[in-house]
Specification:
Shape of chain A: globular
Low-confidence stretches of chain B: none
Number of strands of chain A: 2
Strand content of chain B: under 5%
Structural class of chain B: mainly alpha
Largest sheet of chain B: none
Distance between the termini of chain B: 47 Å
Number of domains of chain A: 1
Helix content of chain B: over 70%
Number of domains of chain B: 1
Helix content of chain A: over 70%
Mean pLDDT of chain A: 88
Oligomer: heterodimer
Shape of chain B: globular
Largest sheet of chain A: 2 strands, antiparallel
Order of helices and strands of chain A: HHEEHHHHHHHHHHHHHHHHHH
Mean pLDDT of chain B: 84
Low-confidence stretches of chain A: 99-103
Number of helices of chain B: 7
Radius of gyration of chain A: 21 Å
Radius of gyration of chain B: 17 Å
Number of strands of chain B: 0
Number of helices of chain A: 20
Strand order of the largest sheet of chain A: 1-2
């Protein structure tokens, strides 16, 4: 009997294989539509009806944090799949930058969907993993599947970005494997189940402090590289800006958050052995450095997708600060930030991808001026996203950023105010560049009309983000506070 | 630094380090790939010696399939495909000096850190640290894209040794997962190398500078 959690993880892999067998684009659309719909339905059933469920012989566990991640993965995953059809329709019609591959037509679209679904499956595996060993394998699998997607266009920049991504993240994750080895050794071995998060937390009470600290340092470097924490982020702007937009949405909105949550779980284990100061202060420091490193690049950036990529470094830094503060309000803020960022950033990458296709002229913001008149829907989507990322009320990030900044000021007034200053500078930079693109003098070019599908795909993440901000539904509030309680208190649900 | 009690294992561990050093020095790409396969073969024997019983044999089987046969074949294909099988600018000329320095420092410092361990674990842990650091050195000093792929495998070999030293062998499922992941990473790098060659991009790491800022 296959359990629900395993089914949720296997479904995208099965859809990926089925995509390879589809003969017509219409079949592909139907099959992936049904697959995504079933995935969302199964995830909803699991989140609402099966809290604390286990699967795959205990390797998968739907605890409070996994529930939030599962919801984020299936929603952004379904949107990414839907947006991928628009992406490929435009690519095939344009025959532009990816002509070398697009020339092959449907077989390459099928291959794309195989890898996209495999990436989605590996994300689900990493999100639902209740075991450090499985988490490591799943995160490495996300590198493999997403690297193919980053380099999928076959262009020089994409191939270079994919190479850097694979090499840097593989070396990083190799160091994270040392964490797995050390924690397994410290827990006394005894098979794969001794690497379950709950078992590790119990065993950690007897870990000697020195090796436990060493294990955490390797995790911080390894998982920190993969989650884009500065100064280990070198691969991120390249990979996120060169990947197809629907893949960038998954990379930025979902993958970074899942890996950060894995690091937070390792911090929780380490805290039992060393006390909370060591792991959480280091996480806090890494978060502050990430926001600081991202700031100048966000102020001086003219490439739209790289701007969004650097914004992801800033956002993951903010989440790390929230988790690192290790206070209930700040951690709840970090979890809420994770949810709203995933929704907002996916919408922004979708809009950016459509802009690049429909306006022509590449990703340079200077070449996208006059958006407000030529492509009002896409311009509005960009502005909306920037205001959300900037924490403007009443969007969801206002509340999460206030919680994190308040926590930071409570911990250290100076550091908190510095964070506030950096966030203000980032908001000013983002608003200036995007505002200039939307309201600047109109460049020559055709008017871009919005389609119903486009409205739905761009509107849904935006609407969800507003709903979370204006009226946080009870189920979301409960999920966020339960996840925060898990992180702060360490008790399993 | 090999202690007498470790016998065969000590000899194999030393051989592993010598092969890692060789990978920093040997120039033609095909020779390096051969050395990598030899290193994996030694690792398979170490798995059998250090983790007796079915677990050791399973681990050795996985290593033979992936690292002795699978990965070298893929890398050889890449070398031939990209015309770099006889490339001599494999790594920076100072790489061997860094490698020798690493061996010297680790050999001198290690007894302090492994004082409480049993001799077999001490030897394996020392070897793991050395192979890991030599792999990282190779990664940093590697000039060809292919060299980075080779040294990524060396790093993973060091990690496998660390697993043996500290845990007596990781769970089989994790070993298998890590090996398959590594094989897939090499496949992806091979696919990307094919594109690098097709696009006539430089095969040297230093010249991949399109994406900045």
């Amino acid at each position: 009997m296959v359990d629900t959690l395993s089914l949720i993880c296997v479904l995208p892999f099965a859809c990926g294989v089925a995509a390879l067998l589809c003969r017509r684009a219409g079949d592909l659309r139907w099959m992936l539509g049904i697959g995504s719909g079933t995935g969302v339905l199964l995830a909803a059933v699991a989140c609402v009806g099966l809290p604390g469920a286990v699967g795959l012989g205990g390797l998968l566990r739907l605890d409070a944090l996994a529930r939030v991640l599962l919801a984020v993965v299936v929603v952004v995953g379904a949107l990414s799949t839907a947006e991928s059809f628009s992406h490929w329709r435009d690519e095939l019609a344009r025959g532009g930058a990816t002509a070398a591959l697009v020339g092959h037509g449907l077989p390459h679209v099928r291959a794309y969907f195989f890898w996209q679904q495999a990436f989605l499956g590996s994300l689900l595996l990493a999100a639902l993993s209740g075991n450090l060993g499985l988490s490591w394998v799943a995160i490495e699998l996300t590198t493999i599947t997403s690297a193919v997607l980053v380099g999928f266009s076959g262009g020089a920049r994409a191939v270079e970005a994919a190479w850097k991504y694979v090499v840097l993240c593989s070396v990083g994750l190799a160091l994270a494997l040392l964490t797995v080895i050390l924690l397994y050794a410290l827990s006394g071995g005894g098979g794969l189940h001794s690497l379950e998060w709950n078992s590790l937390r119990v065993a950690a009470a007897t870990f000697p402090t020195g090796p436990a600290k060493l294990a955490y340092l390797f995790a911080l470097v390894g998982f920190g590289t993969k989650s884009g924490l500065a100064p280990l982020h070198a691969w991120l702007p390249d990979a996120h800006s060169e990947a197809p937009a629907p893949v960038s949405a998954l990379l930025s909105g979902v993958l970074l958050a899942i890996v950060l949550c894995t690091l937070v779980r390792v911090a929780g284990v380490t805290a039992v052995a060393t006390g909370p100061a060591f792991p959480y202060h280091l996480l806090l420091g890494a978060g502050l450095v990430s926001v600081a490193v991202a700031t100048p690049f966000l102020v001086l950036q003219d490439d739209l997708k790289r701007l969004l990529a650097y914004s992801s470094i800033e956002q993951i830094g903010l989440m790390a600060i929230g988790f690192g503060l290790h206070a209930p309000l700040a951690v709840a803020g970090a979890v809420l930030q994770l949810v709203v960022h995933a929704l907002t950033k996916s919408g922004l990458f979708f809009a950016a991808g459509r802009l690049v296709h429909e306006m022509g002229g590449g990703q340079r913001l200077a070449r996208l001026r006059g958006l407000g008149r030529r492509a009002p829907l896409l311009g509005a989507a960009l502005l909306f996203g920037v205001f959300t990322l900037g924490g403007v009320p009443p969007f969801g990030m206002f509340f999460s950023e206030v919680a994190i900044v308040q926590g930071a000021i409570g911990a250290s007034a100076g550091a908190g105010l510095l964070l506030l200053l950096m966030l203000s500078v980032i908001f000013a930079g983002l608003t200036f560049y995007v505002g200039r693109a939307v309201f600047g003098a109109r460049r020559q070019g055709p008017h871009v009309h919005a389609t119903a599908t486009g409205l739905a795909i761009l509107g849904l993440p935006a609407a969800l983000s507003v709903v979370v901000g204006l009226w946080t539904p009870g189920v979301v509030a409960h999920a966020v506070s339960a996840a925060a309680a898990l992180v702060v208190g360490g008790h399993a649900l | 630094m090999t202690v007498p009690e470790t016998g065969l294992l000590g000899g194999l561990a030393d051989l592993l380090v010598v092969l890692s050093l060789g990978l920093l020095v040997v120039r033609p790409a095909l020779w390096s790939i051969g050395l990598l396969a030899a290193q994996a073969a030694v690792l398979a024997v170490i798995a059998v010696v250090a983790a007796p019983g079915a677990g050791g044999w399973v681990a050795a089987g996985v290593i033979l399939l992936t690292k002795v046969v699978g990965i070298p074949l893929v890398l050889q294909w890449v070398a031939r495909r990209t015309g770099s099988e006889n490339a001599v600018d494999w790594s920076a000329p100072w790489a061997w000096l860094v490698g020798a320095g690493i061996v010297l420092v680790v050999r001198l410092a290690l007894p302090t850190f492994t004082a409480g361990l049993n001799p077999q674990h001490a030897v394996l842990l020392g070897t793991a640290v050395l192979v890991l650091l030599l792999g990282l050195a190779g990664m940093v000093s590697g000039k060809l894209l292919l060299a980075q792929a080779v040294h990524l495998v060396v790093i993973e070999n060091g990690l496998y040794c660390a697993g043996l030293a500290l845990t007596g062998g990781l769970p089989a499922a994790l070993d298998l997962g890590a090996a398959v992941d590594l094989l897939l990473v090499i496949f992806v790098l091979a696919w990307l190398s094919h594109h690098v060659h097709r696009l006539q991009l430089p095969l040297h790491v230093d010249e991949l500078r399109r994406l900045r800022g």
